[in-house]
Structure formats: structure tokens, C-alpha cells
């Protein structure tokens, strides 16, 4: 076969990128993703904040008007007392009877209006009549000249004041009006109003809002922890002034200090608070949008807090989506660019491949003939090997059968001697039986016939065991160990009589995964080898012991013979190797036994005990023992 011409290697037509490109490409992609994500986050956060401001302005206006409406409900009450003559009479000419009359009037008016208390002060600031005159904490006789609302009302100005009562310590909103008679102020009417209803409505609506007074002190809040805290820093002079006025009683005026503040517009700012657990540990920051509006007719400010968490969370989602979208678009562009390069490379390669195709076709035609010849030669070799393998299998089967026949041939002389004795006895007994029948001795004749029957059965058992041992069998099947041992001993009973030994059995009658005849053949070989090894000694002992080992059953056949020489141990299982004289063995027994055990999924090994002798261990698959039929 000619050696084909070497094929000319075509130059590579693929575009090799520079080594620096794969390293630097992810960096701008990552920067682009971060830029797109951050930009989308800023845009989404700005839009969400603007939307929250618009929504907050509507809520701010709505709830601020609610506060104004709640305050304006009671603005007319103080001036209403100016129309009552009994009030003017009490202030001009005080008496117990007139005080009792005015107390009853104020009590009824307070009950109908729903205010907390209505009371009347003279020009010195002392309470001369009150709606709670019957209560234990009545204001009657109390001096309230230090209150700012009294001082404003005495000067003829409306008194508006939020503070904590000096008698009960109860917060409230005070509305005062100077009562004029004859062109001068003769007294002051005061109405105290509770604002708890507003806080309860805010809490039910889950609204975060508060109202701060002219001093910057939070007087109403949906969060009780913020109440009576300063929304702006207080100077020492302010703190001393507020403490002397007792406007907030003896309450400590702590400053409300957000962790961050960022103005966003007129009356709008972004503030943050630190989250703290029960142990005071900080866990992140909560951001709010604070919108403040001045309440009409009061120096108060209404502030609405809107959480920015949802807006920031939505902005982060939009930023992440934008980053992912940017990355996806970038990967699509890169894939499109690579696809374009691949198409360009394929177009360039098509012309080169067309030129090389003609050259390859010519060379392929030259090599086709050589390949056909090589293929035909390989087919012939495969056919020869298959035929050789089939011949080898047949030879192996013949070898196994030859081993059996060799064993039978070795036993033929002893078996012939064993059969000659019964035959001679049969001739004698049959002749005597004829004479006894002629004489009429039927009992003796019957005894002779029974003896003849037993001898015939004995001869049948001997020939049946030889036929079963000599026939072919399959690798797999089921075999009972006890039955196989008995059959092997029956085949070898002539030799056992010639060479008596001490047999010890220590095994279970288990069911093994091998053909019954093949197990018997293995046992015949092993026991026969043991008999040959112990033939020259007087004390002959043979042990048959078995044990379970997982899915296998291991049977050990051990003798007390002289053992196997050291130089023969390595060749023990080789075909046609034997330590016996030529007329006593072919060297196939152990080879065939090991082959039969391996074919059944087991093994045959040998050990050399320290006490002497030889021990062969037969391992075979263990099958479930069938239950005896009833």
C-alpha cells in the first residue's frame, strides 16, 4: 500500500482577538451597567419624590384644614359670655349667689359645646367661676395671671395658647377673650379644648404628622414619643423663659434631632432617623419627606411625614432593571458584532475551501482504493478471529469433558472391581433361588430375591452417579450443597474404602447459584486431590467447613497432607500442571474447577495453614433456600 502524499495544511482563517481585549472588555461593560443603573435610580427616585410631594401636598392641605376646623369650632365661645348679664354682674359686683348662678351657666355651656372646661377670670387673673366647680381639681380661686393668654386678653387681644395645666397637668388648647363693659375690660373668659381627637384620627389613618407651636415645640403628634420635643434648637434663654412660664409644666424639652436633613424646596425637606432596637443599637436609617404648612389664625405649623422607603425601593428596582437591560443590550450588540465577524470569516473561507476541495477530492480518490483494500484485509482478520474464538470455546468444552472422562478413567478399575462383587453374588444367589424354589423353600428364595434387589439398586446408584458426573451442564443453575457433597462421596466411595479417612462436616445445606453437576464435579476434584495427597500416610483427616460472607458462601476443603511444594504453588492452576505421576493425573482438575467456579460468578482459591496440609476455598453466590413443599 502506497503512503499517501502529505496534505498541505491550510492557513487558519479565523480572526484571533488580541490578548488584551478579553481582559479590558468587562471593565467598560461593568462601568456602563453601573452608570445606567445609577442614572435610572436617580431618575426614578426624583420622579417618585415629586409624585410623593404632590400627594403629600394634598394630604397636607386636607389635614391642616382639619386642624383649623377643630380649632375654629370653639373660637366663638369666649366672646359668647359677653352677652350673658349674669357674667357681667359677677365681675362687677361679686357675690356667692351670683357665682353659683354663673357656675351653673358655664357647666351647661361646657356640656353642650363639648369643650374640656370654661372658666371666668377677673382682671387680677383669679378664677371667679368655672364649669368644673364641682370637681375635686376645680379651677375656682386659682391665680392664672402668669398665663400668656390672660395677659393678651386683658390687653384686648385674642388669647391663643397651648400648654399643660398647672392644676391637673393635662395638656390643652386655651382660647381667651377680654369681656368689655362700659368701654373697659372687666374680666377674661377662657375655654380649654382637648385635641386628642385629632391625634386619634391620625393614628387610625396611619398618618405620620405633628403640629408645632410658636416656640417650636411639638404639641400634637401621631407618634407619642415626639410630643413636647423641640423641632429647632433652643437657646438657654428660651429654655429659661419657657420654664418660668410653666407653659409645658415641668416637662423636659428635648430637641428633636434627625440624623440627616436635606432641603428640597419651600417647606419641603428630606430628613432621616436612625433605627434603634431595644438595646439602643443602630440598624440603618429611615428617610422621610417632611412637608410643613402654617395653620391659619394660629402661630402653629402642621408637618406631614411621608416615608421614602417605598420610593427608594422602587428606584432601586428600576435601577437594577436598567442595569440588567443595559447589560443585555450590550451582550446582544457584542453577539451581533461577533456574528458579523463570523459571517465575514465564513465568506472569506468559502473561497479558500472551494480551492482546497478540488485538491482534497483528488487525494481522497487516491486513498479510497487503499482504504478499500485495508478494509477487506480487516474483515478477513475479523472473520478468522471469530472462527478461532469459536474453536477455542469448543476446545474448552471438550477439555472440561475430557477432564471428567479422565477422572472416570482413573476410577474405572475400582468401579469394575466394585461391580464384579455384586455380579458374582447375583450369580450365586440366582442359582440358589432356583434350587430353593424347586424344593419349595419359599422363605429362603424370597430372602435371596430381596438381597438380589438390594445389589441391583447399589449397582444402579454407582452407574447413575457416573452418568450424572459425565454429562454436560450449564454455568448457572441451582445446587444444594449437602446433596452435592453426598454425590461426590458416592462417586469416590471405592477410593474412600481403599483409603479410609476421618471426615468432619461443618457446613449448612444451602442453595448455591451453580449447576448441581458442576458443583459435584468441583467437589470430586477437590476431595480426590486431598485423597491423593494423603495416600502415603496413615492418619488421614478431611475437613469440609462453610460460612456465609454477604452474598457469597465460602466452602473450605482442607486436608492434613504434606502440602504443596513452594516451587509448585505459582503454577497450581495452570493447565496440564500436576505434581502427580503421569499415570495418575492430567493436570486439568484444578484448572477446570476454577474455570467452573468463575463461570458461575464465584472463585476458587488456595491457602496454606500453619498446621500443615492444604486448604482450598470455594466461593459461590448464595441463593435463597426454597421452602420445602407440603
From TrEMBL:
CDD domains documented for this protein: HisKA, PDC1_DGC_like
Stored InterPro entries: dCache_1, HATPase_C_sf, HATPase_dom, His_kinase_dom, HisK_dim/P_dom, HisK_dim/P_sf, Sensor-like_sf, Sig_transdc_His_kin-like_C
EC number of the protein: 2.7.13.3
A GO CC term assigned to this protein in UniProt: plasma membrane
Alphabetical keyword list: ATP-binding, Cell inner membrane, Cell membrane, Coiled coil, Kinase, Membrane, Nucleotide-binding, Phosphoprotein, Transferase, Transmembrane, Transmembrane helix, Two-component regulatory system
Sequence ranges assigned to domain Histidine kinase in this UniProt record: 414-624
GO molecular function: ATP binding; phosphorelay sensor kinase activity
Record-annotated membrane-spanning stretches: 315-336
Reaction(s) this enzyme catalyzes, per UniProt: ATP + protein L-histidine = ADP + protein N-phospho-L-histidine
Record's subcellular location: Cell inner membrane
Coiled coil regions, renumbered to chain: 343-405
PROSITE patterns, A to Z: HIS_KIN
Membrane topology recorded in Swiss-Prot or TrEMBL: Multi-pass membrane protein
Name of the molecule in the record: C4-dicarboxylate transport sensor protein DctB
Amino acid at each position: 500500500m502506497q503512503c499517501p502524499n502529505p496534505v498541505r495544511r491550510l492557513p487558519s482563517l479565523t480572526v484571533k482577538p488580541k490578548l488584551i481585549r478579553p481582559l479590558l472588555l468587562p471593565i467598560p461593560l461593568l462601568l456602563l451597567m453601573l452608570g445606567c443603573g445609577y442614572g435610572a435610580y436617580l431618575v426614578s427616585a426624583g420622579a417618585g419624590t415629586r409624585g410623593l410631594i404632590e400627594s403629600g401636598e394634598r394630604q397636607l392641605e386636607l389635614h391642616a384644614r382639619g386642624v383649623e376646623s377643630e380649632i375654629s369650632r370653639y373660637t366663638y365661645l369666649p366672646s359668647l359670655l359677653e352677652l350673658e348679664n349674669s357674667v357681667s354682674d359677677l365681675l362687677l359686683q361679686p357675690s356667692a349667689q351670683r357665682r353659683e348662678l354663673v357656675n351653673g351657666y358655664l357647666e351647661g355651656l361646657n356640656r353642650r359645646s363639648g369643650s374640656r372646661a370654661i372658666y371666668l377670670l377677673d382682671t387680677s387673673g383669679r378664677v371667679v367661676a368655672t364649669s368644673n366647680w364641682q370637681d375635686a381639681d376645680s379651677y375656682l380661686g386659682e391665680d392664672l395671671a402668669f398665663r400668656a393668654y390672660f395677659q393678651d386678653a386683658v390687653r384686648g387681644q385674642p388669647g391663643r395658647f397651648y400648654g399643660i395645666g398647672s392644676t391637673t397637668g393635662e395638656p390643652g388648647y386655651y382660647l381667651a377673650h377680654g369681656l368689655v363693659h362700659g368701654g373697659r375690660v372687666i374680666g377674661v373668659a377662657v375655654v380649654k379644648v382637648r385635641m386628642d381627637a385629632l391625634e386619634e384620627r391620625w393614628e387610625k389613618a396611619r398618618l405620620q404628622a405633628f403640629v408645632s407651636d410658636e416656640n417650636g415645640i411639638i404639641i400634637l403628634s401621631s407618634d407619642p414619643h415626639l410630643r413636647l420635643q423641640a423641632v429647632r434648637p433652643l437657646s438657654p434663654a428660651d429654655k429659661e423663659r419657657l420654664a418660668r412660664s410653666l407653659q409645658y409644666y415641668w416637662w423636659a424639652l428635648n430637641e428633636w434631632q434627625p440624623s440627616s436633613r436635606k432641603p428640597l424646596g419651600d417647606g419641603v425637606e428630606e430628613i432621616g432617623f436612625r433605627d434603634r432596637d431595644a438595646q439602643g443599637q443602630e440598624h440603618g436609617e429611615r428617610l422621610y419627606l417632611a412637608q410643613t404648612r402654617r395653620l391659619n389664625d394660629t402661630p402653629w405649623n402642621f408637618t406631614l411625614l411621608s416615608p421614602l422607603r417605598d420610593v427608594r425601593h422602587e428606584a432601586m428596582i428600576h435601577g437594577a432593571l436598567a442595569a440588567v437591560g443595559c447589560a443585555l443590550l450590550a451582550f446582544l450588540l457584542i453577539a451581533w458584532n461577533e456574528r458579523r465577524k463570523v459571517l465575514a470569516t465564513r465568506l472569506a473561507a468559502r473561497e479558500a475551501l472551494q480551492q482546497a476541495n478540488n485538491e482534497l477530492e483528488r487525494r481522497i480518490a487516491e486513498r479510497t482504493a487503499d482504504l478499500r483494500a485495508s478494509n477487506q484485509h480487516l474483515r478477513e482478520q475479523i472473520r478468522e478471529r471469530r472462527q478461532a474464538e469459536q474453536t477455542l470455546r469448543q476446545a474448552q468444552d471438550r477439555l472440561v469433558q475430557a477432564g471428567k472422562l479422565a477422572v472416570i478413567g482413573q476410577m474405572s478399575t475400582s468401579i469394575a472391581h466394585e461391580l464384579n462383587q455384586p455380579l458374582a453374588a447375583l450369580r450365586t444367589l440366582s442359582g440358589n433361588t432356583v434350587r430353593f424354589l424347586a424344593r419349595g423353600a419359599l422363605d429362603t428364595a424370597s430372602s435371596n430375591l430381596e438381597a438380589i434387589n438390594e445389589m441391583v439398586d447399589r449397582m444402579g446408584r454407582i452407574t447413575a452417579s457416573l452418568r450424572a458426573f459425565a454429562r454436560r451442564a450449564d454455568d448457572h443453575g441451582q445446587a444444594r450443597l449437602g446433596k452435592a457433597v453426598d454425590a461426590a462421596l458416592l462417586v469416590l466411595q471405592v477410593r474412600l474404602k481403599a483409603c479410609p479417612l476421618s471426615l468432619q462436616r461443618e457446613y449448612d445445606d444451602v442453595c448455591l447459584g451453580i449447576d448441581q453437576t458442576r458443583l459435584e464435579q468441583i467437589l470430586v476434584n477437590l476431595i480426590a486431590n486431598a485423597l491423593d495427597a494423603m495416600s502415603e500416610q496413615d492418619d488421614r483427616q478431611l475437613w469440609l467447613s462453610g460460612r456465609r460472607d454477604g452474598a457469597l458462601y465460602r466452602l473450605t476443603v482442607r486436608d492434613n497432607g504434606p502440602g504443596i511444594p513452594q516451587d509448585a504453588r505459582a503454577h497450581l492452576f495452570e493447565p496440564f500442571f500436576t505434581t502427580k505421576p503421569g499415570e495418575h493425573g492430567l493436570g486439568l482438575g484444578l484448572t477446570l474447577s476454577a474455570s467452573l467456579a468463575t463461570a458461575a460468578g464465584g472463585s476458587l482459591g488456595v491457602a496454606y495453614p500453619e498446621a500443615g496440609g492444604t486448604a482450598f476455598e470455594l466461593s459461590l453466590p448464595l441463593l435463597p433456600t426454597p421452602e420445602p413443599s407440603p
